[in-house]
Amino acid sequence: MSVQELETIFQNKIDAEVRIEPKDWMPEKYRQNLIRQISQHAHSEIVGMLPEGNWISRAPSLKRKAILLAKVQDEAGHGLYLYSAAETLGISRDEMTEQLLSGKAKYSSIFNYPTVTWADMGVIGWLVDGAAIMNQVPLCRTSYGPYSRAMIRVCKEESFHQRQGFESLLVLSKGTDEQRAMLQDAIDRWWWPSLMMFGPTDDASPNSVLSMKWKIKRFSNDELRQRFVDMVAEQVKLLGMTLPDPDLKWNEERKHYDFGAINWEEFWNVVSGNGPCNKQRLDARQKAWDEGAWVREAAVAHAEKRRQRTGSVAA
Amino acid sequence: MSVQELETIFQNKIDAEVRIEPKDWMPEKYRQNLIRQISQHAHSEIVGMLPEGNWISRAPSLKRKAILLAKVQDEAGHGLYLYSAAETLGISRDEMTEQLLSGKAKYSSIFNYPTVTWADMGVIGWLVDGAAIMNQVPLCRTSYGPYSRAMIRVCKEESFHQRQGFESLLVLSKGTDEQRAMLQDAIDRWWWPSLMMFGPTDDASPNSVLSMKWKIKRFSNDELRQRFVDMVAEQVKLLGMTLPDPDLKWNEERKHYDFGAINWEEFWNVVSGNGPCNKQRLDARQKAWDEGAWVREAAVAHAEKRRQRTGSVAA
Amino acid sequence: MNKELFEYTLHLADNALILGQRNAEWCGHGPALEQDIALTNISLDLIGQARLLYQYAADQYNAMDVGGQAAVAALLPKPWKEFNRALQEDDLAYLREERQFRNLLITELPKGDWAMTILRQFFFSAFQYLQYQQLQQSSDATLAAIADKSLKETAYHLRWSGEWVIRLGDGTAESRRRIEAALADLWMFTGEAFVPAAFETGIAPDPAALRSAWDERIGSVFAEATLDVPATGTWSQGGGKRGVHTEHLGYLLAEMQVLQRTYPNMTW
Amino acid sequence: MNKELFEYTLHLADNALILGQRNAEWCGHGPALEQDIALTNISLDLIGQARLLYQYAADQYNAMDVGGQAAVAALLPKPWKEFNRALQEDDLAYLREERQFRNLLITELPKGDWAMTILRQFFFSAFQYLQYQQLQQSSDATLAAIADKSLKETAYHLRWSGEWVIRLGDGTAESRRRIEAALADLWMFTGEAFVPAAFETGIAPDPAALRSAWDERIGSVFAEATLDVPATGTWSQGGGKRGVHTEHLGYLLAEMQVLQRTYPNMTW
C-alpha cells in the first residue's frame, strides 16, 4: 500500500472514531505529536508532585496529611500510566526523562509557581486540577487507544482530587478570619496562572490545527478556557470569595462570563524558563534522578545475579 | 649536657614556677603529655560547638540568639588559641584534626550527650562550663608558657559564659511553670555527666601523677570534683531547683557536701564511643572537614597564584 | 494501669507517625516512580495506624475519671488545656512537645539515602510485625483490633523492605558500601525496642520476648543479602520511650507542627 | 507615610535577620576555624542590625495613633494582639507569618555550599552597603543613625566576601566550577533589590538609583575573580517585598520561631 492509501485508511478510522492502536500504521507526525503531548503530560504529573509535596510534612491535620500524600502518590501513578502509553509509541521512559531534564521536553508551567501557604493545596486541587480536567476529559476520547485508556483512569482520579480540593476550601471558607484570608490570598495568586493553563489563544497555538484534525484534541484552547471561567465564577460564590479580576462579569448575550486580559508576557516568560521555580523544579528532578542512579543500578545488578543463578540451577 | 642534667634544670624551673617556653629543652614525655592534653582540650572546644550550635537557629529571642552565637564563636576562638599553643610543640593543626577524626585523640565526653531543650543551653553554661572552669583555672598557672597564656584568655571568656548561662537560668527559674519544669529537667539530665567531666577517681587516673609532678595539673580529679559539688549545691538553691541526687547533703565534719556514687560504667561507655552522640559528633566534624577541603585548596591555590604574580612583577 | 495503657498507646502511635513522617519526605524524590509510590504507601499505612491509635488514646483519656486524667496530665498537650473540648487525635500529634513523645529513636533519624531508609524500615517493620502479632492476642479489644488490621500492612512493609535489603546487599559494590554504612549508623538504635519501658507492663506485651524471633528474621534476610549481622548484646541507644530523644526529633516536630502551633484549635 | 516607614523598617530588619539566620547555620560547620569565626561575625552583625531595626519598628508602632495603627494592622503578629502589652522586637521577629515578611528572596535561599554562601553575601552586602550609605543621609534620624553604625560592619562584610569571590573564582578548577554554579542559581535573585516597592517612597531612598554603582562593584570584583558578569537586564525574580516568598522561607521560619510559637509571651 502506498503511504497515501495508508493515510486515507488512517484518517477514515479517526473520522469513524475507531481508536488507533500501537501496531496500527500511523503518520510519523501523528506519532511525534502524540509522544510530545503524552510525555509532556507525564512530566507534568511528575513535576506537579513537587509544589504539593512541599506541604506534606506540614499538613495541619493527620487526615489532611494522608489525603495530600495519597493525592501526590496518585500523580506518580498518573505519570506511570502516561509514560507507559508513550512507550507504546517507541520511546523509553529513560529517554523521556532525559528530555525533561535537558529542557527539551516541557511540562505544565503552572508548576513553576511556589506553594506559599497551606491554602494553596486546596486551591491547586480546585483550580489547577479543575483546569487540567477541563483539558483532559476530552482526551478520554482521544484517537490513540493507549492514551485514551490512560486518560480515563487519570480523569477519574483527578475529579476525585478536585472534589477533595474544593471540600477542603469549603472548610477554610467556614473557618476563622485568618483561614478565610489565607484562602482569598491563594485564589488571588493562582487564578491567572490557572487560566494560562489552557495555553495560548487559538490564533497563537501552533500545534492545534493538526491535533484537532487527528482528534488528539477536540476543543480549542479558548473554548476550554471559557468553560473553565464559567464554572469557577459560579463555584467561587459558594466559598464566599472573589476572583481577582475586575472585568469578570456575566454576559447575558454570550451566555458566558467575560473576563479580563491575560498577561501573556508572564506566560511566555514562565514557559521559556523564567518562572519563580523553573530551575528549582528541574534541579529537584535532576537530584532525584542522580541520587537514584545507584539504586536503579543495584536493582538491575541484583536481578541479573538472580537470573544467572536460576539459569545455572536450571542448566 | 647530659639528659640527666637537662632534666634537672627542667625540673628546677618547674619547681621554681618558671614557665617552660617552646625553645626550651623538655622531656619528650612532657611534650607528648602536653600535646595530648592541649589538643584534647582544643578538640573539646571544637566538638563542643555542636551541641550548643544545635539551638542557635531556634533560640527563643534575638538577644539569646546573639549571645549563643557569640558563645559558640568564642569556643571556635578557644580552639584556635589552643591549637596554636599545641603547634609550638611541633604538631600541626591538620595532624591534630586527623587524630580527632580517626578517634586517636579524644575530646570531652560531655559533648556526646544531646541537647534536648532550650534549657540545656543555660545548664551547659552553668554546669558544663562551670566544671570546665574548675578544671581550667589551675591551668592558667600550668608550667608550659604558651598553654598557660592561652588558658588565661580561655578562662576569662569561660567565666563570662558561665555567668551568662546562670543568668539565663535565673530568668527561666522566675518564668512560667513550663519554663521551670524545662529547667529542672535539664539539670536532671546534665548533673551526673557534669560530675564525670572531672575524670575518673584519683586512684583510676593513669596520667595524673606525672602531670602533677610537672605542674601541668595542680589538683587531683577528686579534689576539683568536690569543689564543684560544693559550689553547685549552693547555687542550685538560688534557682529554687534541686540536684538529682538523694545522697547529696552537707557534711559538717568534712565541711563539704557528700554526694552519691557516680555511674562509672556509663562514663567508660561514653568514653569508649558508646555515648548517645559520639558517632553523630565525629560525623559532623568529618563532614565539615571533607566539605571544606575544596575551599581550603582554593585558598591555597589562589594565594600561590598571587605570590607568583607578585614575584614576576618584582622580577 | 490506665496510665500505662495510655502511654503505651501513645508509644505505638508515635512510632507510626514519626516514621510515616520521615518516609513521606521521599514523596516526589524517590529513585524511581515505582519506589516513590511504594514508600509513600508505607507512609500512608503508618499514618493511618497512627490515626487509629491516637483516636484510641484520646478515647481512653476522655473516658477517664478525674484521678485517671490527673495521672496522665504530664503527657497531654498544654495548649489543648485551654480549648475546653474533648481531646482529639490531632491534639496528640500536633501539640505535644518533644519530651512528651514516646517513639523509638530509630523512627526519628533523618531519612538519609535510600539504603538508610530501607534498612531502618526493615529493622522497624521486623519489630512492629512481631509486636502487632503479640497485640492481636491482647485482652484490650481495641488494641487487638488495630493490630489485626495493621498486621497485613506491616507484613507487606517487612517483605518489601527485606527484598530491598537483599537487592542492595547483593547488588553492586556501591549499593553494598551504602547499606553497610547504613548498618553502621543504625545498628546501635535497634536494641531500644526490646528493653521494656515502665509502661510496657500489664496489657502491653513484653518486648524482650520478641528479640530472638527478630534476630532470626534479620539473620535470614541478611544471609540472603550476603551481609554480616553485627554482634548482638553490643551497647544500644535508648531514651525515646521516656522522651529523651536524639537532636533530630525537635526539627521534625517544629516542621510538622508549625500550622497547628501558628493557628491553634482550628478546623482544616 | 507612617505605614511606608514602618514597612520599610521591617523590610530592612527582615533582610538582616533572615540572612543572619542563614549564615548562622554554618556556625560549627565552616571549612576552617577562621572562616567559621568570620561568617559567625557577619551573622552576629546582621542579627544586631535586625534588633535595632525591629526595636525601631516597634517604637514607631507604639507611638502611632489609632488610625496609624489600623493602617499597619496587616503587618502585625496575630498572637501579640492578645498579649495586651506594647509591641516588642521579638514579637516582630518571631510571631509574624511568612506572608508578612518583607525580606529580599536572596536572603532566604538555602545556604548551599561555601561558594553559594559567599556569593550571596557578596551580592547582598554590595547592595546593603549602598543602601545604608543612602540612609545615612535620611531625614529620619533613627534610620540614619542605624545606617551609620551598620555601615562599618557592612563594609567589612563586603570586603571579606569580595575577597572570597576572588579566591574561589581564581582558585582551583573545582572552586571555579562551584562559584559559577552558585552564580547560575543566584543571579536571577539579584534584581529584586533595585525594583522599588510601594513602601520605598518618601523617606525610603529609591533603590533603583543604586543599580549602576552596584554593577560597578560587582564588575570590578568579578574581573579580579576572572568571572563573567551575566547580562544585566535579564529577567529577575521578585515577590519578597510584598511577602510572596520562595518555598524555602516557610521552613526557616518554622524552625526559627518554634519556641515562641510553643511558649508564647514568655521571658527568656
UniProtKB/TrEMBL annotation, chains A, B:
Gene3D superfamilies named in the record: 1.20.1260.10
Q: Which InterPro entries match?
A: Aromatic_CoA_ox/epox (IPR052703), Ferritin-like (IPR012347), Ferritin-like_SF (IPR009078), PaaA (IPR011881), PaaA_PaaC (IPR007814)
One Pfam family matching this protein = PaaA_PaaC
Q: Which NCBIfam families match?
A: PA_CoA_Oxy1 (TIGR02156)
Name the chain's protein: 1,2-phenylacetyl-CoA epoxidase subunit A
Native species: Flaviaesturariibacter amylovorans
Q: Which gene encodes it?
A: paaA
From TrEMBL, chains C, D:
Query: What domain of life does the native source organism fall in?
Result: Bacteria
- Family matches, as Pfam families: PaaA_PaaC
Q: NCBIfam families, alphabetically?
A: PA_CoA_Oxy3 (TIGR02158)
The entry's protein name is Phenylacetate-CoA oxygenase subunit PaaC
Organism, by scientific name, is: Flaviaesturariibacter amylovorans
